[in-house]
Specification:
The protein is an alpha+beta fold. It has a single domain, classed as Arc Repressor Mutant, subunit A, CATH 1.10.10. The protein contains four helices and three strands; from the N terminus they run αβααββα. The chain is globular and about 55 Å long. The protein starts with a helix and ends in a 5-residue tail after the last helix. The structure holds zinc ion. Zinc ion binds next to helix 1.
Length: 103
């Protein structure tokens, strides 16, 4: 169950970062590790694929140091999904964090 939550959070992180600038796999792995999510490529790439299949991200290749690097850019639909997610996150945070000291 915890893994399901984290996968949702990870999807939102990815969408958020792609909304700032196009991202690539190794960069996302580092960024997610910074947030405490140590995810393997075997977890990350299926998430990226599903975001792409849902039309929230699109990919393109760019040659970097002689190798093609695959970038993921947010789509218009991705931005809309992020806007919706932000509203839900705010509502969720307002609710679950308000009585954080009540155990
Ligand atoms: Zn982040």
């Amino acid at each position: 169950m915890i893994k399901d939550f984290f996968l949702g959070f990870i999807r939102i992180h990815i969408l958020f970062h792609a909304s700032q600038a196009p991202v690539y796999g190794a960069e996302l792995t580092r960024e997610l590790a910074r947030h405490g999510y140590n995810i393997s490529p075997g977890t990350l790439y299926p998430v990226l694929h599903s975001l792409e299949e849902q039309g929230l991200l699109r990919t393109y290749g760019e040659v970097v140091e002689g190798k093609v690097r695959k970038y993921y850019a947010i789509t218009r639909r991705g931005r809309e999904a992020l806007t919706e997610a932000r509203k839900k996150i705010k509502e969720l945070v307002d609710e679950v964090m308000v009585n954080e000291n009540d155990k």
